[in-house]
Design brief:
The protein is α/β, with parallel strands linked by helices. The chain is built from 13 helices and twelve strands. An eight-stranded mixed β-sheet has the order 3-2-1-4-5-6-12-9, sandwiched between helices. Strands 7-8 form a two-stranded antiparallel ribbon. The two termini are about 30 Å apart. The structure holds beta-D-ribofuranose (BDR) and calcium ion.
Length: about 325
């Protein structure tokens, strides 16, 4: 095993994506080798610029950022999440521009290059729509096979949806891509609403890293709009930790309790579009089964996140 787990984050920043990137940078167990961006919470140009700026905030503009898909695979899904994340994706906070430029390679090429050249197995954490990963599977299947573990934020087994009654945002944004990825034989952990909704970062926790220094204070400022949204949408006094919980599992494998299940994504155009149908009748032994996260120690996960974010200013 390498000293540190090589890691790629595929992301659509996004307030909680920003938090997830910062968590990875604060974690010595992982070596963030590449960030790929995708359409999602806001348009691709914005998610890409946001990724560059978040890395720069943490003094890590050396991490390459490659831009990926600007739209879903088949059915256009123009609805963004500006009402959650702010029109520019980072809760109305204008971060300083990065001195780095976007990597000239398309995201799938950058991903394939990294996977084919890494001597160690690479963890990939997709925390946005799964378009880039589906394209990787289609264009570079031999590279996709070298993924050690996909840790996906998306879906829901028993909690319904958050963007429709049935669907979670990342899966709903590109159901055909999600179907291809979750139907593949790549070892996959699905970190869905069942474990993210109970994981709430309170204003007290945010205040702890806000007090640690300028990086923590900026992260707290980015989160403010998300706190307001969570209070209104979910009735909780803090931030629902979606993407950073997936990163926690990527950083510390086994953090979440999982059960191996067959998962089908609803790709019809009806009311169920984007739903993850998790077959709970039995544990699956199929090679395409997914490790569905079912249990979380939410207090421990939040404490991990808060202490790691505070450490960025140490
Ligand atoms: C997911 O949707 C996005 O808005 C968040 O960034 C997260 O990845 C939660 O459903
Ligand atoms: Ca996201």
């Amino acid at each position: 095993m390498p000293d540190r787990i090589p890691l790629v984050i595929d992301t659509d920043p996004g307030i909680d994506d920003a938090l997830a990137i910062l968590l990875a940078l604060a974690s010595p167990e992982v070596d963030l080798r590449l960030v790929t961006t995708v359409h999602g919470n806001v348009e691709l140009e914005q998610t890409t610029d946001n990724a560059l700026r978040v890395l720069h905030l943490a003094g890590r503009s050396d991490v390459p950022v490659a831009a990926g898909a600007r739209a879903s695979l088949i059915h256009p899904q123009p609805e963004r999440a500006g009402h959650v994340h702010g029109a520019a994706g980072l809760g109305g906070v204008q971060l300083p521009p990065s001195p780095a430029s976007v990597d000239p390679r398309p995201a799938v090429v950058a991903l394939a290059d990294l996977l084919m050249s890494s001597p160690e197995p690479v963890t990939v954490a997709p925390i946005g729509p799964l378009t880039n990963i589906a394209l990787l599977l289609a264009v570079y299947p031999e590279a996709a096979e070298r993924i050690d573990r996909l840790v996906v934020m998306g879906g829901s087994a028993a909690r319904g949806g958050n963007v429709t009654a049935a669907a979670e945002f990342n899966i709903w944004s590109d159901p055909e891509a999600a179907a291809a990825v979750l139907g593949s034989a790549i070892p996959t952990v699905l970190v869905g609403l069942d474990v993210t909704l109970p994981t709430v970062l309170t204003e007290e926790g945010i205040a702890r890293f806000a007090a640690a220094g300028p990086i923590g204070a900026t992260a707290a400022a980015i989160l403010q709009q998300y706190v307001d949204h969570a209070r209104n949408a979910y009735g909780v006094p803090g931030v629902v930790v979606h993407d950073a919980l997936a990163l926690t599992e990527a950083i510390a494998p086994g953090t979440l309790g999982t059960v191996r299940r067959d998962v089908v994504v609803d790709t019809t155009l009806g009311a169920g579009r984007g739903q993850t149908l998790v077959d709970q009748r039995s544990v699956s032994t199929s090679p395409t089964a997914v490790d569905v996260a079912t249990t979380v120690d939410a207090g421990a996960a939040v404490e991990f996140l808060v202490s790691r974010l505070a450490s960025l200013d140490a």
